[in-house]
Amino acid sequence: MAEILFFSAVNGITYGMLLFLMASGLTVIFSMMGVLNLAHASFYMLGAFFGFEISRHLGFWPGLVLAPLIVAVIGMGVERYGLRTVHKHGHVAELLFTFGLTFVIQKLVEMVWGKLPVDYLVPPSLDFPAFTIFATEYPAFKLFGLLASIAIFLALMLVIKRTRIGLIVQAALTHPEMVGMLGHNVDRIFMLVFGVGVGLAAVAGVIAGPALVTQSNMAGLLGPILFVVVVVGGLGSLGGAFVASLLIGLVQTFAVAFNISLADVFGPVAADSGLALYLDDIWSVTVAQVAPVLPYLLLVLILIFRPRGLMGNRES
Amino acid sequence: MRKLFATTAVALTVFGAAAVPASADTVKIAFVDPLSGGAASVGQMGLNHLKFIADTVNAAGGVNGDMLEVTGYDNQVNAQTSLVQVQKAIDEGAKIIFQGNGSSVGIAIEEFVTKYNSRNPGAHILYMNYAAVDPAMTNEKCSYWHFAFDANVTIKMEAMTNFIKDQPEVKKVYLIDQDYSFGHAVADTAVSMLKEKRPDIEIVGNEFHPLVKITDFAPYVAKIKASGADTVITGNWGQDFALLIKAAGQAGLDVKWFTYYAGAAGGPTAIKQAGLDGKVFQVNEGIANLNYGPAMETTKAYTERYKDAPTMFPRVFNAMDMMVKAMEEAKSSDPADFAPKLEGMTFQSFSNGGEMFMRADDHQLFQPIIISAIGPVESGQVDEENTGWGWKSVGEIAAKDTIVPTTCDMKRPG
Amino acid sequence: MSDTSDTVVRPAGFPSGAAPGPLRRYGPWIVLALLLLVLPRVFSSGLSISTMCVMGTMIIFALSYNMLLGQSGLLSFGHAVFFGLGGFLTAQMMNMMAGGEGPLPLMVYPLVGGLAGLVFGVIFGAVATRRAGTAFAMITLGIGELVTSSALILRGFFGGETGITVDRTEIHQVFGLSFGPQVQVYYLIAGWCLVSVIAMYAITRTPFGRICNAVRDNPQRVNFVGYNTTVVRFIAFSLAGLFAGIAGGLASINFEIMNSAQMGAAESGSVILMAYIGGVGNFAGPIIGAIVVTYLHLMLSDLSDVWELYFGLLFISMVMYAPNGIAGVIMMQRPLIRRGQLLRVAPYYVLALIPGLVALAGLSMIIEMTHQLSISASEGLGMTMMGIAFNADALLPWLTAVVLLGGGGWLGVRAARLAREAYGAAMVRGRVQ
């Protein structure tokens, strides 16, 4: 049991930090521009696929740098020529625009790389077990992913706390209207923030690609979880996003470790009752089986008991 | 490009056009599989097979003098869309529906064809199923108008357990499957058959995980490791298989893998990445390196025509060859005439020439099943996905040793 | 700050006018009923009847969605949940009553779906409508995921990934209708479609419908006036669930199979596409959208492997340049017709359309050639478009495509500007006269 607990904790934190890498960009974009970028996970996917393509020609490390840069440039283009045009049609139109973007990006990726997973390899320099504990090896690449996420998290905090742009971003988190009124070039800051935000998502993609899977449905798998993170954390709250990322990462991995079902706790359902056929399914489902549903349950519960989210401070 | 853009005009006139009757000298075969989107590559390979076989038959004078004509219809892996596509095919004169990908689509088509034939007197639409393997299709939902050419879950498990029976080193088995009907069918049959054939084997885990939702299998692998299993049986396919194997390789999990779909796209790549030489077994109706003369010749001709997608589906050859034989025996290409010839037919397997037969009770084909393991192959032999690794036979189970009972209560027309 | 108050969607609808006479009031519906009656005689092939059955179902579904998006300003990403649950409960009910045991004829079964949609609309609405705007959208997304994932776990009720099948002919039969032939199902769907469309139109004309519009346009003011916006959103959400459930019930009668894919994210996305492409600002918009999108969905996939990409691009360009959808573009021409100016502007439209089509041809060449080079490479590089054969890796076709796209695009933009100016001028002229 101890080994499962240990590995669940490590895996959960790694996964949670990966989520936060994306949720942070999403939160900052949302706070400043008021638009929840539904295509955020699609940029994460683009990062993974660009990283894969670059790694085939130049190796993994150039990919880690170049892919996020390319994605950031694409993101800035999307903001400049897409979102800004749509902005005048209102927030629903902006949401729908990013929704349409998820669809187009997925189809483009399928068109170029297909629907099957691509062979994105862990770089040889990190392809060894970092440590062996309880006779199970822990891959070095995952450890690298964890450390990289933490490093980026710290760097981001430093930028936000210490630089001029960071101050503006910080101000925008709490008083978005005021920032514009103070005469900052809001358009250029928007473009920059959007680019950096999706660039961070792309970094997550390059790290997650070899460790997990690089496939055209990866955006669809992660996207909804990401939105759960930002809503549970509280829309627009960076701290909330951080807590929620770790919480959901841990919940999902720990749930897998438990095979307990209602039947184990309360005993099997009476077989002769008419509803046994339907009830039996609910009764015998284990916690492990419902692991992927838990974030959404958490979302619903949070909204019932704390509608602003864990650390949110304003109504949407 | 599958079709000409010029066909826009044709498609636009479909609306309102009355049913186009099939011309007298062609036998229209409708291939209703995924042909767009990301799953298109799988469907396209099936279509290539059908076209290759149809061209071979036509070059030899056709069937009873009639030419075979294969048309693709995109089912979009959606049960409801596929039914509209079948309707489209019927309107255009097709009487034979070929389908395989998507069990949900398969069941939808099977029911549709049965109802269509009973509700429209004189209509005889036949469903040739080359890959959908839900056991329900030849048991409680069985139909006279449906023929299954792939071995279903139970048959493959029968073959797999007959193989495991003679492997004394297998002592602790862990089952991990996708949480849907196929995964449950695999787990349930594995439990009951192992209990019967090897009561000494201990089942140390019976795990279900969500279908195509897991991005990291490390927690599951940790559980397998903790259970002390020496063998894992899994029905996982696609990314759920690839990721499971990947996580096992990363954690250094040293067990034997008995699988249904390790050979499917993406599988061999993942196995090689994980370095599991000779540890992963798959159970299917045929592999490349069997050294059976006729199959090798056909394979060579096929791979020359489709150089970039040389994957072979032996069951498509079995299905088409048996259908053509039935048509010739019945001297008719109307399913009402040749279906009676198809049921009960015995035939030689495409893969190794072994005997196989179509059971009349439920229209399920029984065929030799090959157990194979993947590892590095010598040059000259066929490898998978350019990995340098290929499948090698480690056991062949004859058709007669794969027979499982059926609950089918076949309703024959008339 | 993310609420939807500044949306450009405007209340509209046909027919309009201050005090409509009986003919103006009922005329359009009688015409619609007659049209539905004769359609299967005009388009009589099996495929067209099947297609029209799908369209009828989708019209109800898209209109129910527009009760949220268009009428109340609520962007939902999980509307297919109600479609699916309605369909599943109808199917379960039919299976329970199979063999002619139940006294109810097949005609009333969509009501089962509707009730299911309503009940679940009330349940999920109680959670979701506590918030508006972006948070609402995210909650519906979560509910959608929750329900679809649960459906795969609860195999007893939902039948796993293969779903559950029914036989509509085994339901108690009246008037000698077996509902075996597809055309009988067509009339069943057409009848329900007509009833639902009229009902949903009537709702938009009630005070409640108007309050929904007000909640969409300015929730704050609605609050000040004394209405509870959450309650208004909640009622709209539940009613939308009701009609989506009816559509789901009809779908399970039509296809005789229901599976969890029918309530997944893809289905929820496709209803957004229908409503938006048709036009959310006009009552008839989603009807047009449902017909167009269903038709393209069934026919386009035979023409191009990457048809979904064209679909996505169409959607994005609609969001960017025609936010009121097809219906919005049509409605823009109404003042021109009234002022007798349409013929003067029409040549400019044609002028803009031609380079537009050229640019589209260029774009589609680039898409298809990229596709041929990447995914379809296994089938060789030779391809055919519009009857012309060429190789996807040759320079000439790529040059042609770029020239077509660039030239057509440039000319198209200029011509579009001219058309806009002509439109403006015509409006001014009409006013002067």
From TrEMBL, chain A:
InterPro entries cross-referenced by the UniProt entry: ABC_transp_permease, BCAA_transport_permease
Record keywords, A-Z: Amino-acid transport, Cell membrane, Membrane, Transmembrane, Transmembrane helix, Transport
Major localization listed first in the record, in broad terms: membrane
Cellular component terms per the entry's GO annotation: plasma membrane
Membrane topology, from the record: Multi-pass membrane protein
Transmembrane segments: 12-39, 59-78, 90-109, 140-160, 189-212, 218-235, 242-262, 282-305
CDD domains: TM_PBP1_LivH_like
Source organism: Hoeflea marina
Pfam family, one: BPD_transp_2
Protein family per UniProt: Belongs to the binding-protein-dependent transport system permease family. LivHM subfamily.
GO molecular function: transmembrane transporter activity
An annotated GO BP: amino acid transport
Domain of life: Bacteria
Compartments where located: Cell membrane
Protein name stated in the entry: Amino acid/amide ABC transporter membrane protein 1 (HAAT family)
From TrEMBL, chain B:
Pfam families according to UniProt: Peripla_BP_6
Keyword Transport: yes
Superkingdom to which the source organism belongs: Bacteria
Keyword Transport: yes
CDD domains: PBP1_SBP-like (cd06329)
Any one GO biological process: amino acid transport
Signal peptide boundaries: 1-24
Gene3D superfamilies with a match to the protein in the record: 3.40.50.2300
Domain called Leucine-binding protein: residue spans: 26-371
UniProt keyword list: Amino-acid transport, Signal, Transport
PANTHER family: LEUCINE-SPECIFIC-BINDING PROTEIN, PERIPLASMIC BINDING PROTEIN OF ABC TRANSPORTER FOR NATURAL AMINO ACIDS
Family classification: Belongs to the leucine-binding protein family.
Protein name per the record: Amino acid/amide ABC transporter substrate-binding protein (HAAT family)
Automatic annotation (TrEMBL), chain C:
Keywords, comma-separated and alphabetical: Cell membrane, Membrane, Transmembrane, Transmembrane helix
Transmembrane feature ranges: 26-43, 50-68, 74-94, 106-128, 185-203, 231-253, 273-298, 310-333, 345-367, 395-413
Source species, domain of life: Bacteria
Membrane topology: Multi-pass membrane protein
A Pfam family: BPD_transp_2
This protein's GO CC annotations: plasma membrane
An annotated Gene Ontology molecular function: branched-chain amino acid transmembrane transporter activity
The protein, known as: Amino acid/amide ABC transporter membrane protein 2 (HAAT family)
The organism's taxonomic lineage, starting at the top: Bacteria, Pseudomonadati, Pseudomonadota, Alphaproteobacteria, Hyphomicrobiales
